[in-house]
Amino acid sequence: MESGSEGAPPNGRRRGNWWSLLRGEAQAPAWPALALDRAPTPTLICCDAGQVKLANEAARSLLRTAGCAAPDGLRLQQLVNLTDASRQRVMQLFKGSVRNCQLVTTLGTRQWPVEVRAVRYEADRSVWAHLELHDIRHRLVHFAQQRARVELRQELIEAIPLPLSLRDDKGRFVRVNRAFEDWHDVRRAQVLGRTPSDVLPASVTLAFARCDKLALANGEPVDEELELRPSDGVVRNVQLRVHAIRQHGALLGIIAIEADVTRLREQEGLLTVLHRRLDRVSASMIDAQERERRRVAQDLHDDVGQVLTALKLAVDSLAQGAAPAQTQDLRHVAYLIDESLHRVRDVTANLYPHVLDDLGLEPALGWLIERFVRPALPDVSMRCRLERKRTLQDIELCAFRVVQEALTNVVRHSRATRAGVLVEDRSGCLHIEVLDNGSGFETGASWFVAPGRNSLGLASMQQRVEELDGYMQLESTVGSGTSIRVRLPWPAADAATEGGAA
The Histidine kinase domain covers which part of the protein (predicted)? Predict the structure, then answer.
């Protein structure tokens, strides 16, 4: 068995042939050197004196790139730049203290970065080292780029003016920025490695716990607002946002950002107060306007109407005893007086619909359409289904004004050929819908201002509706017409009266 083929791999006693080759014995077979030379990994074989005995072609190429001389016969220290610590580890390897070691060092004059993986062998009472040289230049470039990105992220975190903290999957702080330190009056060394309950007030800790639970369950950022009462006694409104960071389903950490929204809430409160005042002023203006309309309409009916009626009677009386030549002139004057009376009645009805007070909403809407809308838009329809015919006067007046303003816009601005009005009460509410097939217009933030008009138009409708706790929706598309939907409370007249009295 000892006389086996010289080309067989070293095994048992025949392994001595390879080590004989390393010692320079000419009679040793040459196949181990060929196998080593063909290996893709740069490899060196060194004796216990640190002298290079074999180097494959990959190692020679790497050493040439690093600016080293041919490795044959050179000592390892002439090729590899060893520090004191690295040299000590190599000595431990040859002395047998360790069987393998791993070093990160450089080669030659160009300081080429490599990772050296060394394994100790013993053969024929000799110690040898098998060294693999791994080029880590690209790895170091990658590490440098990654470190630069990490440093950039750290700088960005520090530059954020809001308190920011990052916690690991156990809820312990791993990073906080300067704003967090200033906000909570803590130092970074006191926070890192600890949980919120260890360093933060109880109210903040509970908020963190609630947000953490929701963020982990939903996978979405969670917001919560809380009030803080620091030692200075000034109440602060804080908006807390927590987001769980995951990768491939695994929790990497939890990021939390806090924002002081005290000024924002104060401004929102002030804005709310101003809106309420504006609503009250607007409602007072609408009420004053309706009262003034009613007064003017009443004055026109009582004063101007009566004067014109008396003048008409006087002219008719004069015409009976006048000469034929004057009779024609008096009849013309009587005609002008009749026209004036009709105009006064129209103006009076426009100012305030007394038919609404006398008969209710449905007859008033029918009168409005027949008297003012149908002469300009013949194809207009109305469907009115009211189980309760009467309700509060304010609600009836609001519903009438909504339909009046909507139909006025249709006649004046939409260039529509057809319009429809639907009025019905269901589920304790009055539902109004006004549709047309006109030109329409683009709706937006200022949809309530009718295009081409100087009056507030639709804004007045919306204000009236909201004053009565109603709802108004407008939909319009250029070229496809407009629809206005309104919902108002519709209590029974007797119940509304009793509720008001109570």
Answer: 299-492
CATH number of 359-501: 3.30.565.10
Structure tokens at 131: 């060294």
Length of the chain: 502
Label residues 225-261 b or e (16+ Cβ within 10 Å = b).
ebebeeeeeeebbbbbbbbbeeeeeeeebbbbbbbee
Nearest to 82 by CA among 46, 57, 54, 28: 46
Nearest to 439 by CA among 407, 480, 484, 405: 480
pTM above 0.70, yes or no: no
Residue the block writes with tokens 């590899």: 80
Contacts for 34 with CB less than 8 Å, ≥ 6 apart: none
> Using CA atoms, how far apart are residues 231 and 228, in angstroms rounded to an integer?
10
Mapped onto helix, strand or coil, the DSSP state of residue 200 is coil
d(CA 476, CA 457): 15
What CATH architecture does domain 12-138 belong to?
A: 2-Layer Sandwich (3.30)
Instruction: List the CATH code of the domain at 160-260.
Output: 3.30.450.20
